[in-house]
Amino acid sequence: MSYQHQYVDGTRIHFPLGKVVCIGRNYAEHAKELDNPIPSEPLLFIKPGSCVVPLEGGFKIPTERGSVHYEAEIAVLLGKPLSTKPTEEEVLDAISGYAPALDLTLRDLQSKLKEKGLPWELCKSFDGACVLPPFVSAGAFEDVKDIGIRLTINGEVRQDGNSAMMLNPIVPMIQHMAACFSLQAGDVILTGTPAGVGPFEVGDELVLELPGVSRFESRVL
Ligand code: ZN
């Protein structure tokens, strides 16, 4: 099933899917669980739009390339371009909506790439590596510094975080990203994952939510 940006009420969002700009190690407890140092500067990487699939109805994972880890993350959809040095107001004005997303990672492969100092595309950019549900309009959020993110698998809460725990909060993070490369309407920002990552198995039933805002059920096919 091909992906198209939309809001939870089913309204289609007209700008096309762009790139997915991600930050690594943005929650201290998650950096610690994978034995990674906390970076002195934001650790950024990009997933291509081609890897995005919709959450609803279930999604496939690669089954012959080692462990496929889930990373539940707050996704931010941009509805306006940002570049160089946007102000806090410009960043907030450019945000169209928020959703809970999955940044899927071939973890065994990533460990090998990290050992050799190689780039992460092979473990982060495969088809299906970014799973997105519909967005809730930004107007529904009072405080960008207090957005929850929760992933429940087979009835057990595995990840439960909040944007208040981010080492780089959402607005300064996007300001930094825009200074590194132009952001466009239709781009998605993945804001890092809280602790609790682990492998998906085919058949897992999951609930992915921004608690109190949006909630989606899905399964690993
Ligand atoms: Zn991630």
UniProtKB/TrEMBL annotation:
Keyword check for Zinc: no
Domain Fumarylacetoacetase-like C-terminal: 19-220
InterPro entries cross-referenced by the UniProt entry: Fumarylacetoacetase-like_C (IPR011234), Fumarylacetoacetase_C_sf (IPR036663)
Pfam families referenced in this protein's UniProt entry, alphabetically: FAA_hydrolase (PF01557)
Keyword Metal-binding: yes
Keyword annotations of the record: Hydrolase, Metal-binding
MF terms (GO), sorted A to Z: acetylpyruvate hydrolase activity; metal ion binding
Classification via NCBIfam families: PRK10691.1 (NF007967)
Homology family: Belongs to the hydratase/decarboxylase family.
Protein name, as recorded: 2-keto-4-pentenoate hydratase/2-oxohepta-3-ene-1,7-dioic acid hydratase (Catechol pathway)
Species name: Pseudomonas soli
Lineage, highest ranks first: Bacteria, Pseudomonadati, Pseudomonadota, Gammaproteobacteria, Pseudomonadales
